[in-house]
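Troubleshooting entry. Yesterday's outputs looked truncated, so today I'm pasting the complete records for two proteins to confirm everything comes through intact. If either block looks cut off, that's the bug. Protein one:
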Amino acid sequence: MHCSTAALCRQTVKQVAPVRYLWYNAKQNLFTGKGNAVDKHLERVKDTLTQGEYTIAVENNGKIYTSDKNGIAPLLDFLKNPEILRGAAAADKVIGKAAAYLFLKGGVRELYAQLLSEPAKELLESRNVPVTYGQLVPYIKNRTQDGMCPMEQSVLEVQNEEEALQKLQETLARLKGKPVQ
């Protein structure tokens, strides 16, 4: 089922109460409301990912966006509304190089992957995007587990986000048996 960005947001966005974090300032020996809440946001999306039936969770501007779609489909949906990923913390069950390029295109700030491929890790680290993971694997396997994921394979030699998006769209069209637009 395909839905518009507005419908996607209505279906998948959970508004969360604003959270105020306190930070310990050792120099002044006191807690303050100032500081970088990056780690707290990542923990919230990790918790959302593991506690729900979701494949991805993204937090940005006090909102958590989730999806239960597989593969790169949720990222392609989120890219239709650039404000979802720009500056966000995200947690995903599987991040291969294809997903890494889409996260970069969206401008994500930091990532967590339950399963991360080595090519994705190298790409994200080369672009200074912090990424943590549960398990690191040489590559993401296809759905039948007998080879490399066609999405990851299609972007192995790609050098930028625009080229990656084009290759991914071509691969999706080929897999669906549709002509490339």
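Protein two, checking that the full record survives here as well:
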Amino acid sequence: MPKSTRPSPSTHSVSIRLAQEAERARRINETVARRKATDHEMNVDDQQTRPVNTAIAVSSTLKLVIMGHGFGELYKLRSIVTYALSPFEQRAFAGIISKGLPNVFKRTMDNIFYVLPPTLGAYLIYTSVERAHAQSLRKNPDDYKDEE
């Protein structure tokens, strides 16, 4: 059987993309030329209004098209599966009373021995220091009994 002269699908899609990008670049260049002509007619300084540099944008998109990928398709993730559930099918507060409150109690009891001793110690130190400070501010009545 003779070989087909028709290009392969990947080559064909690249040539279609290149043609589309060339058409897009042509339209952008026409728009820029039209704007330049309008600006020139209105005596607007070209230094103040510079047209969009289309050569950079077109060359970068052509590079992506030549590579056979578009933006967001530069690589393919493999062996990563993600699942999602519609927000309308989720029950955000399911089991909050029957499972949530006992879970809060259990977690509190698990951590109470890590939190309570330092807190209790800090409270006792604070109250004793405050009591000692208040006592140091008092006047001694024996110091003033000779003044009367």
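Both blocks look complete. Sanity check on protein two: Residues 96-137 form the longest helix (42 residues).
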